[in-house]
Write a structure and sequence with these properties.
This protein has about 425 residues and is of the alpha/beta class. The chain folds into two domains: about 200 residues, D-Maltodextrin-Binding Protein, domain 2 (3-Layer(aba) Sandwich), CATH 3.40.190; about 210 residues, Periplasmic binding protein-like II (D-Maltodextrin-Binding Protein, domain 2, 3-Layer(aba) Sandwich). It is about 45% helix and about 15% strand. The chain has 19 helices and eleven strands. Strands 1, 2, 3, 6, 10 and 11 form a six-stranded mixed sheet that branches. A hairpin with a 2-residue loop joins strand 4 and strand 5. Helix 8 packs across helix 9, helix 8 crosses helix 10 and helix 8 crosses helix 18. The longest helix has 17 residues. The radius of gyration is 22 Å and the shape is globular.
Length: about 425
């Protein structure tokens, strides 16, 4: 299973390109009368392997069943997707379509005229997936991509038995969360499990806090660097974040140990025997880690609650996902793009795969279990949805291992008292990236 699709970098490393992309071509019928039965071939490339590949291919199978004249070939590029696509574009032989993990990657290809406009699907995207989906995939007024597979980055996963033993209920507000943390610690267990070795887990916590304290307008401004990272709204969010880090004894392994803990371990150690912490703040794809790597059962052993409201903030969700883009324009490629805006496609996506969907007509009962139903529905029930802020930045600043935001939030975990200092460092890196 892959995690946090958006953390893939678009760094260009030219590799020998295997002949992985076939040119689109239609089969030849034996006569003019047979030509109507010709199947037009198109290709789509993404990162998915294993179970995710099977799930995505189920979506394509549904499309082909309703469009029998079109044959879709799926090819996996794994985590080398940006490099493979870059090489294919430079060689003049890209796939017809692809699923891209970062809006910044979509914008980069669009800026180089490598993508075909999707304005023919703009209304369907707006009607079915919402105006933010249109905004997210629009570059210079033209739609080039839209979210198809989505994840909810705002759940907090907790050990049900530890909460019961401490007499703690899932908190709805920030104040209740801090009170619960003190009670859990007094019961003999650390509250927080942070996967600090993967810096994106920490940036996601900041993004959730910032969306709730600053609101969507400032979130968008910060994402575009229209306000600096030294802005009072940023420092306020950092001060809230510091409250999670300020007691090293209430973090599993302490801050240093957290920085050596990767994302999967930060999840499993909440549900190990014995558990090392009571909760972890991780996106909805933590579900698969829990069920694949522990014996914990949903609802009875593990459950989720929403990221808490801060000072009465409205329900909000930070998340990510993969957007469809079109490199080669054809009727068949357009048909698949349009299909991916439908409720039928959304239902297969959430039924067969580990993903959620923004589709407004999706019946929540399509999610296969109560917890996934809750996290998936949370995307639609929230007043505000925003893409991971780090993934909206230039890659060298926003979503690259060992530098930029991910690195600075790791530093902040070790030194949460230095709000002003970390804000200055982040702003310096942001200013350089946006030059």
């Amino acid at each position: 299973m892959r995690f946090r699709h958006g953390h893939l970098s678009i760094g260009i490393v030219l590799l020998p390109l295997l002949t992985v992309f076939a040119a689109c071509q239609g089969g030849e019928g034996s006569s003019g009368a047979d030509s109507a039965a010709t199947r037009e071939e198109i290709s789509i490339t993404a990162v998915y392997t294993g179970g995710e590949q099977k799930a995505f291919e189920a979506v394509l199978d549904d499309f082909m069943e309703t469009n029998p004249s079109i044959e879709v070939t799926y090819r996996s590029a794994g985590d080398e997707l940006p490099t493979v696509l870059e090489t294919a574009v430079r060689g003049g032989n890209p796939p017809d379509l692809a699923m891209l993990p970062q809006p910044g990657v979509v914008a980069d290809f669009a800026a180089r005229d490598a993508l075909q406009p999707l304005d023919f699907a703009r209304q369907a995207v707006a009607d079915n997936l919402g105006e933010y989906a249109v905004q997210l995939g629009t570059v210079d007024g033209t739609l080039y991509g839209f979210l198809v597979l989505t994840n909810n980055g705002s759940p907090i996963w907790y050990n049900v038995e530890l909460f019961k033993q401490a007499g703690v209920n899932p908190p709805a507000t920030w104040e209740e969360l801090l009170e619960a943390a003190e009670t859990l610690k007094a019961s003999g267990v650390s509250t927080y499990s942070f996967g600090g070795a993967d810096g994106w887990t920490l940036s996601a916590i900041f993004e959730n806090i910032y969306l709730r304290t600053a609101g969507p307008e400032k979130y968008d401004q910060l994402a575009r660097h229209e306000i600096p990272w030294t802005h009072p709204s940023v420092k306020e969010a950092l001060q809230y974040m510091a409250q999670l880090f300020e007691d090293p004894d209430n973090i599993a392994g302490g801050p240093e140990g957290a920085l050596e803990t990767d994302f999967p371990t930060s999840v499993t150690q909440v549900f190990s025997d014995p558990p090392k912490a009571a909760l972890t703040m991780i996106a909805d794809f933590a579900y698969g880690v829990i069920t694949d790597s522990t014996s914990a059962k949903p609802v009875s052993d593990f459950d989720v609650f929403d990221f808490p409201s801060i000072d009465g903030s409205e329900p909000s969700v930070v998340g990510g996902g993969d957007s469809v883009v079109m490199f080669t324009d054809s009727e068949a490629a357009r048909a698949l793009v349009e299909y991916l805006t439908t409720a039928q496609a959304a239902q297969t996506i959430v039924t067969e795969g580990p993903w959620s969907s923004l589709h407004t007509d999706l019946d929540p009962s399509a999610y296969p279990d109560p917890i996934r139903r809750r996290t998936g529905s949370g995307l639609l029930e929230a007043e505000t949805f925003r893409f991971y802020l780090a993934d909206l930045q230039p890659p060298e600043f926003g979503a690259t291992v060992g530098q930029g935001l991910w690195k600075y939030f790791q530093d902040f975990l070790l030194n949460p008292d230095d709000v002003d200092g970390i804000a200055v460092k982040i702003e310096k890196a942001a200013a350089e990236a946006f030059e």
